[in-house]
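Follow-up to my post from last week.
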Amino acid sequence: MLTAETIAEARRAVRTARGQGRRVGLVPTMGALHEGHLSLMAAARAECEFVAVSIFVNPIQFGPNEDYQRYPRPIERDLAACREAGVDLVFAPSAGEMYRQERLTSVVVRGMTEGLCGRQRPGHFEGVTTVVAKLFNILDPDAAYFGEKDAQQALVLRKMVVDLDFPIAMRFCPTVREADGLALSSRNAYLSADERERALCLSRGLEAGRRMIAEGRTEAAAIAAAMRRIIEAAEPEKIDYIEIVDPHTLGPVARVAGPVLMATAVRIGRTRLIDNILVDSQGNKIRMNDLFL
Amino acid sequence: MLTAETIAEARRAVRTARGQGRRVGLVPTMGALHEGHLSLMAAARAECEFVAVSIFVNPIQFGPNEDYQRYPRPIERDLAACREAGVDLVFAPSAGEMYRQERLTSVVVRGMTEGLCGRQRPGHFEGVTTVVAKLFNILDPDAAYFGEKDAQQALVLRKMVVDLDFPIAMRFCPTVREADGLALSSRNAYLSADERERALCLSRGLEAGRRMIAEGRTEAAAIAAAMRRIIEAAEPEKIDYIEIVDPHTLGPVARVAGPVLMATAVRIGRTRLIDNILVDSQGNKIRMNDLFL
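User reply:
Got it. Predicted complex:
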């Protein structure tokens, strides 16, 4: 496994692989790798002869009062996990390498970034789209792999790729969950035992919403209200949002008449957790990839 | 010479060339090709085994009261000029091909786009950076060629390339002028005989400013005032700006103590003309490429 800390080294490694006719798959991460990330690497491994993983805690996607400083950075463990997963290249640049001079350029996706997490995290998605555009230009992948867990991020990045004509296939992989339903997240490491238990309210609330749709309920407001009751029962510090939106626009729907994304962001202790579920109008779980067939 | 009207065809042509190990040079244009564009093609031809020219009058870089509709589109003459210049591929998409669905994504360069032409043309540079990012992703060039004539555009695009890590060498070629000094522009076609004569005020004003620097004057305000007197003598309909700026930031300088960009935008009749000259602190003309050595 190659590791590159500079853009120049990373480009060289990918160019060599391309010169050998290998298909390049990229898994962009912020490290603190868990089974969710490993499933992305496995998906890349299955489709590509050269798998690159980037590990970069991207400062420009964190707000001033967010957890950039304390975000976990277990680099040795991450490198071992990549090696174990058969990754070909890990690109782990410093912030100074990625932002070498005063940056004036951003990639912005309007509309889709304004609701859901965008409302509480102004500038977050601009930081995400900008760094992913940079990673795409540095690592020149044929395909890139993202988790459905960060649904808004995935859908915003797909829109960026379509609008800017990046020649990259976007692949979305299902959220990986603990046995009790908690969606894996690097931020779960912040949770105390009590918080870990209360954090189950996200997946339970979403599943309750899904069941209502499966039972034929269509009024988004009533479904969201039922989800809210379940989430509130866990006494979260704050509910940032509980929403039922059109997965193509991320705008709210009044009635469930096609695929919907049910999404929630909740603060448990000091930790902000997000989860979502994508369902068709019958309440069946569907894959994000299938939205774009 | 290949011509492509679709993104898919253009990609195929470039991939074939790349597969043959050919270096790809791109000259992005809005058509209505003149000697300035031909000099860009010649520069590309000298450095690259495969030269692509895009011809696309990009709607999103025109303001609502600008000349998008009447901008000249002599496509047959342009294709003949490209053939004559030894171009390998002309990519001439429709607006519908370039913007196939509602676009939500933009590439924005802040700061450098706010002065000079950015002040009178809000949204213009966002349209330019967005379409050029798209063209870069579609045509995947090793090098791209731009005229120094559109100095702010060139410097903004270079900043975009640096900030977003596009693996593309940016080449800037000198402004081509008529014998009497008028900078070539597709918009010169709009000028009546009287306007054509009055349009000489731009290059004359800039040259007078350059001479003052060569004679040791350093106060930007005095130099700009002298330039203004020359330009006003031609009774232009409006002077949008006459500025002396730092070519790295495009911010105004008070004194000439290093390279400066002297730039002006003037309305002659209904036509908005721009011109500029890049000089060192001794008033010697310098090349934009040399700013970044």
